[in-house]
């Protein structure tokens, strides 16, 4: 009951803080619309790069443009959701250095909710929109013999992927408590991770594929289940049921990230100590 109460309290605090930032951003609606549109265009440059690449080649690692668009749309949409919800956590190190993190500790609200909702930015919807558009195009263009399990895996991948990326954001924030100048390390696993997943696993070495499958399981955002949907062989041997375990991987990642956050928070010493 205590855990459930703490969760509800955290969600309520998050909603109130995020709502405050939303109201603030909507004060200047023209500026907000321009910012969202600009964010959409900037994030879309990644896919433009892929299109330019395919103007010179017919396939990449044996994967066609619609298949890579499928990977891209899944990765960008899932990451965009996590970035919208918890994207502000990469500034935790800066908060600790300037002493403002101490202020959050004395407020009557869960610290994780405060950090996650801080500077909640609806402009990040541009990334989600752009990823969803590419994913929609991929779904109607890719050559797949659709079945019920394959169709259901698409929304499962988006939701599970968002949860996995969210766990990486939280774990990275916990790491920053111990190493306050580690924002770039966190970004290597979050922004770097989504860029990695935009390309097929067949273009990477097997050691890297093993690493993002078994150590930091980003492969379950899209690589593993997408290989099943597209009837593509995975570079390393996995059982057939592995394509359906993304929700379990997401839950495990969130639990471990929550434990890491608690350990980090207990270990924190004030800036002035």
UniProtKB/TrEMBL annotation:
Transmembrane region(s): 32-57, 69-87, 128-146, 152-175, 208-229, 241-261
InterPro entries: ABC-2_transporter-like
Protein name per the record: Transporter
Organism of provenance: Streptomyces afghaniensis 772
Coiled-coil portions: none
Keywords of the record: Membrane, Transmembrane, Transmembrane helix
């Amino acid at each position: 009951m205590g855990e459930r109460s703490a969760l509800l309290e955290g969600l309520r605090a998050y909603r109130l803080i995020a709502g405050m930032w939303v109201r603030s951003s909507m004060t200047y609606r023209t500026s907000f619309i321009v910012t969202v549109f600009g964010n959409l265009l900037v994030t879309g440059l990644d896919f433009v790069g892929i299109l330019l690449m395919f103007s010179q080649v017919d396939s990449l690692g044996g994967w066609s443009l619609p298949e890579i668009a499928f990977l891209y749309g899944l990765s960008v949409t899932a990451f965009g959701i996590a970035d919208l919800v918890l994207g502000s956590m990469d500034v935790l190190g800066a908060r600790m250095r300037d002493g403002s993190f101490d202020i959050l500790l004395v407020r009557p609200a869960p610290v994780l909710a405060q950090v996650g909702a801080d500077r909640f930015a609806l402009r990040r919807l541009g990334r989600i929109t752009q990823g969803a558009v590419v994913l929609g195009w991929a779904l109607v263009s890719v050559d797949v013999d659709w079945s019920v399990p394959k169709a259901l895996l698409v929304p499962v991948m988006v939701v599970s992927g968002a949860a996995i990326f969210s766990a990486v954001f939280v774990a990275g924030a916990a790491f920053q408590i111990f190493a306050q100048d580690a924002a770039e390390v966190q970004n290597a696993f979050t922004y770097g991770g989504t860029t990695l997943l935009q390309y097929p696993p067949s273009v990477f070495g097997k050691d890297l594929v093993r690493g993002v499958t078994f150590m930091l399981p980003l492969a379950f955002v899209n690589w593993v289940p997408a290989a099943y949907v597209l009837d593509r062989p995975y570079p390393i041997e996995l059982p057939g049921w592995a394509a359906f375990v993304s929700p379990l991987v997401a839950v495990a990642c969130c639990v471990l990230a929550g434990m890491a956050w608690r350990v980090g928070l207990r270990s924190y010493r004030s800036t002035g100590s």
